[in-house]
Each structure stands twice: as structure tokens, then as C-alpha cells.
TrEMBL record:
Protein name according to UniProt: M55 family metallopeptidase
Pfam families: Peptidase_M55
Coiled coil spans: none
InterPro entries: DppA_N (IPR027476), Peptidase_M55 (IPR007035), Peptidase_M55_sf (IPR036177)
CDD domains, alphabetized: DAP_dppA_1 (cd08663)
Length: 274
């Protein structure tokens, strides 16, 4: 069996603001160490519980945050940027399950460092379903028939995962106080929790169904300002909804929708404040 793990950074215990997740700031090296340790707890549990192969995708920012020299030696790590499928690069039908670690809640919702891809996104939908990074990535996994077994992050992330993926196991490593403050487990305690929850998730894997995406999904992204929508609308096939900063795209499948989202948000980041 193979396990796929996508590791973001904002949902790791003890990481509560941008100084831990921005490579130019003073707390970032501490964030890397704790992030790598949390990944190892799940990786080691997966191998112990019978998985023959574990592939880890570094899914934060430039996607080169995990300390490969400190990972379990049998781990295969996808690291670096640019990746065509970003946070779910390398995921395919060969995996028996997926785990999302260090995840955060979607844009404009409560939660530590909540956002969706970029801070210029106010909301994102697939058809009528609101999604953040967690939901979109789960849909890609579902396209391949892969169930999301475990989601780890703060308490708001757990609620988002449980509302979207019936039967998913969640590990709450910190509880939101505000968007930049949390009641955190120590790394030692988060490690104990992650091992317990990973074991629980693996045991329950046959009861979790893949989150199957809709056929020919319509992606809609609401941006913070009209300038961002104008940049996103430069991608062929997109439309701006009249009188709003919402850009839509009719995709042939969820994979095309995912790459469209990636391109649209990258373009939108070119918008200046004034």
C-alpha cells in the first residue's frame, strides 16, 4: 500500500503567525523543525501500520520547507516549485489513502492564518460548494478514487474537514484564539496525538469514501478587489461576473479546474495596492 501526504505549514502546532511560515522571518527555522517532526510522526506510523511506500509533498509557499535530512529514511519527498499540481503534485490512483497535515481553514473564515492560496482570495467555489485548499485538494484525490483519511491542523480546520469528508479522522494540534494566536499543544504532545490519530485513520480507511468531484465543474473565485479579477480574467476561458470581482471558469474536469485556479491566483498576485 502507498500513502500520500501533503504537508502545509500554517496548521502545524506552535506556528501562529507569519514569522513562522515566511522564510525571511526569524521564527521560520523553528517552524521548519516542528513541521518536519509532525510529518515524521505520521510517516513512521504509516510504515509501522503496513504501508510499503510513503510519498510526501511539501505544500507550503515555495514548497521547500521540510528538512529532508530529518525525515524517515524511507520517505520519498516532492520538494520545490513550480509544480503543475501544486499541493497535490504526484497524487494518483496508485495510493490507498491521503493525509493532509499542517492545513488551515479557508479564506474569510475563522482559524489560524486562514486563507485560500493567496490573501487576495475572499472565497472559492466548485459549483455551489465552498472550498479552500483542503476541499479542492480533497476533490483532486477523489478524482483518482483516493480517500482523505487524516486531516491535521487547528480546530476550525477540523470542522471544515468533517463537514466536507464524512468519516475523516482529524487531529487538532492547536485551538484558535484569533487569526494569529492559538492554544497549542507542545510538539511532544502533538506527536503523541498525531501517532494516535494516524493509527486510527489507517484502521478506518475502508469506511472513508473518496470525495468525488462533479463532472465539468464550474470554478468561481471571488477576489478582494476588481484589479485582481482583471488579472485573473486574462486567462483564456474565464469570465468576470458583471459588477463583481468574481471570476468563473467552466472546466472539463477537476484537474483542469485546479490548474485554472493555480494560474488565476498567480496572475491575481500581480495586482498592486494602488
Amino acid at each position: 500500500m502507498k500513502l500520500y501526504i501533503s504537508v502545509d505549514m500554517e496548521g502545524i502546532t506552535g506556528l501562529v503567525d507569519h514569522t513562522f511560515v515566511d522564510s525571511s522571518r526569524y521564527n521560520y527555522p523553528r517552524g521548519q523543525k516542528i513541521m518536519t517532526a509532525e510529518a515524521n510522526h505520521v510517516i513512521e506510523t504509516a510504515f509501522f501500520e503496513g504501508f510499503a511506500e510513503v510519498v510526501v509533498n511539501d505544500s507550503h509557499s515555495k514548497m521547500n520547507n521540510l528538512l529532508i535530512e530529518e525525515l524517515h529514511p524511507e520517505t520519498q519527498l516532492i520538494s520545490g516549485d513550480v509544480k503543475p499540481f501544486s499541493m497535490v503534485q504526484g497524487l494518483d490512483a496508485s495510493f490507498a489513502g491521503a493525509a493532509f497535515l499542517g492545513y488551515h481553514s479557508m479564506a474569510a473564515k475563522r482559524g489560524v492564518m486562514s486563507h485560500t492560496m493567496i490573501f487576495g482570495v475572499r472565497g472559492m467555489h466548485i459549483n455551489d460548494t465552498a472550498v479552500g485548499e483542503l476541499g479542492f485538494n480533497a476533490y483532486v484525490a477523489g478524482y483518482y478514487g483516493v480517500p482523505v483519511l487524516l486531516v491535521a491542523g487547528d480546530d476550525e480546520t477540523a470542522l471544515e474537514a468533517e463537514a466536507l469528508i464524512p468519516g475523516v479522522t482529524t487531529a487538532i494540534v492547536k485551538k484558535r484564539i484569533s487569526r494569529s494566536a492559538a492554544l497549542c499543544l507542545t510538539p511532544e504532545k502533538s506527536g503523541v496525538l498525531l501517532r494516535e490519530k494516524a493509527k486510527e485513520a489507517i484502521a478506518a480507511r475502508d469506511r472513508v469514501k473518496p470525495l468525488v468531484p462533479p463532472d465539468k465543474p464550474v470554478l468561481s473565485i471571488e477576489f478582494a478587489n476588481y484589479g485582481q479579477a482583471e488579472w485573473a480574467n486574462l486567462m483564456p476561458g474565464t469570465k468576470i461576473e458583471s459588477g463583481s470581482p468574481i471570476v468563473t471558469y467552466e472546466a472539463k474536469d477537476i484537474l483542469e479546474a485546479y490548474q485554472a485556479m493555480f494560474v488565476m491566483t498567480e496572475l491575481a498576485m500581480r495586482t498592486t495596492f494602488c
